[in-house]
UniProtKB/TrEMBL annotation:
Biased composition regions of type Basic residues, renumbered to the chain: 134-149
Domain Flavodoxin-like: 419-559
Residues of the 2Fe-2S ferredoxin-type domain: 28-132
Pfam families: Flavodoxin_1, ODP
Gene3D superfamilies: 3.10.20.30, 3.40.50.360, Ribonuclease Z/Hydroxyacylglutathione hydrolase-like (3.60.15.10)
GO MF entries: 2 iron, 2 sulfur cluster binding; FMN binding
Annotated stretches, region: Disordered: 134-153
Protein source organism: Anaeramoeba flamelloides
Protein name per UniProt: Anaerobic nitric oxide reductase flavorubredoxin
Swiss-Prot/TrEMBL keywords: 2Fe-2S, Iron, Iron-sulfur, Metal-binding
Amino acid sequence: MLSFFTSNKKPLVNKVEQVASRLFTSTYKLNVVLRDGKKKEIKYKKGETLYDAATNNKVFAVLGQCGGNMSCTQCQIYTKEEDFGKLYKMRPQEKDALGHANERIEERSRLSCGLILDENADGIEVEMAPLRKRKKKKKRVKKNKKRNLHPQDTEYVPKQFDSTFSSAVTKIVDDIYWAGYVDFAVRDFHGYLTPNGSTYNAYFIKDEKNVAIDSVKYPFADRWLDKIEYLSGGFDKLDYIVCNHAEPDHSSSIQYLMKKAPYAEVVCNEKCKTTLSQHFDTSDWKFRVVNHGESLKLGKRTLSFYNTPLSHWPESMVSYLAAEQILFSMDILGQHYASSKRFDDEVKWDDIEHEAKIYYANILMRLSVPVQKSLKLLGGVPVKMILPSHGQIFRNPENINKMVQNYVNWSKCTPTNKIVIIYDTMWNSTEKMAYHILDGIQKVGGVDVKLMNVRRNHITDIATEVLDCAAIVVGSPVLNEHIMPEIGSALTYLEGLRPQNKLAMAFGSYGWSAGGAVKDINRYLNSIRAKIVRPEVLSQFAPNEDVIEECHKAGEEMAKAVLEHLKK
Ligand SMILES: Cc1cc2nc3c(=O)[nH]c(=O)nc-3n(C[C@H](O)[C@H](O)[C@H](O)COP(=O)(O)O)c2cc1C
């Protein structure tokens, strides 16, 4: 038996949470004024978040869409001014989330999911912050239907198989099959590059009940439907289609299945049901809504469901077969990797590890806190195999260990001895500065450098290098008082992905107004809470000897700061 954490079983809680969990258990209470003006008393134990206490008190009006992951900010509360200062201090994730909130933020704002309750919160009164007005749901569904916004709403037209391979199912163990589609051709996934293609992994369980798990991207619906028909012995023998995640690469073929399989029920959580209805016309679908921890008896086996909100979307969940110790991990441990082989031990480990890193950096880096929560939840689940929604299936215990450890490191952006220099240039002055900074770093030794011109390196690769670097050094010339657009685009992308724990500095060349570009760069660096190690280096037009010397010095200082940082 192999646990999801087979080595280095370090709990993924930060220090604050560890302290909080050790606190006493006597009960206190506070009041929450809900958005409809009603007041609710909430009893809590010291160390609980307000969000968890509200859930335990069944005051669900406090809850937000992201499931308490400090992301959607819908659980924002206003404290009374006199109470704000005495409450448990804000952790960086909470500050960060409030900084990106859609709703109105006040000085006395807190997130219920971030606010740890202690004895100082006893007897206080807080008020739910108003939500930004949203259009009525019913109207929006109607509008979408009328406009036919989604290409996947178009009628499914069966196609011929391209090859016998695309129609093949793979037996994983007795009665459990891979029934997905290998997309060798795809090169772009919502804006980032997939040079090795991808797979849409759908699975099938044969038992007294026939169960399809997830589907494939809609252009490949026909291949998937044929496999499901074959495996279940006819569409009328299909009992369930589990939808772990409503993103269209995994869900958009379900609409065609529902027209063919008269008795099939869609098994998903409540949020997934709503999200599916916002993509497709689900009015005729039969749903079986499952809650966190609930199970479905299939015959010999039982399939259990665990919500893992925001590892990748709010409705994300995983499914688990205890009998075979198989985890259908959805996007967790996914890789965009197309191969004729299905298992991790049939391909080169370095290839899939690298693809998993690209996947993590570009999809999950922003979602590190929810990912850590999911890892913690799954830490107690024994697994022999992990079946993700993209890429190779993991069945080699050593590989499972390595990949889980990678996730632990990536989710903390654990720094390695690497500095990434990201820059743009028009007439090469900024580029020359970048090379001189590189020389300065090299002079100190012991730190790797990646020099990435934003016009020759895709944001996909920049994000991947940034994930585990210790420092980023960003340069741009001044163009019309600002940074160049391509570096702006790269920094906007990184700002969204929120890399943690980075040292940083800015540099760049200008003509007649020094500050514009570095001011923009520093704004981005501050937004991701990078620690700016030293003041920017500027050059009026091409760097002269003084500037070159300063670039060398800056490189040396950055390298020394990184080596110091890694000792901690
Ligand atoms: C279209 C254009 C707009 C520019 N706008 C500014 C500006 O607003 N302020 C400024 O100080 N320099 C401006 N410059 C000058 C450049 O910042 C300067 O030439 C710098 O040295 C270019 O660095 P590079 O060689 O790395 O491209 C501009 C140059 C160009 C070509």
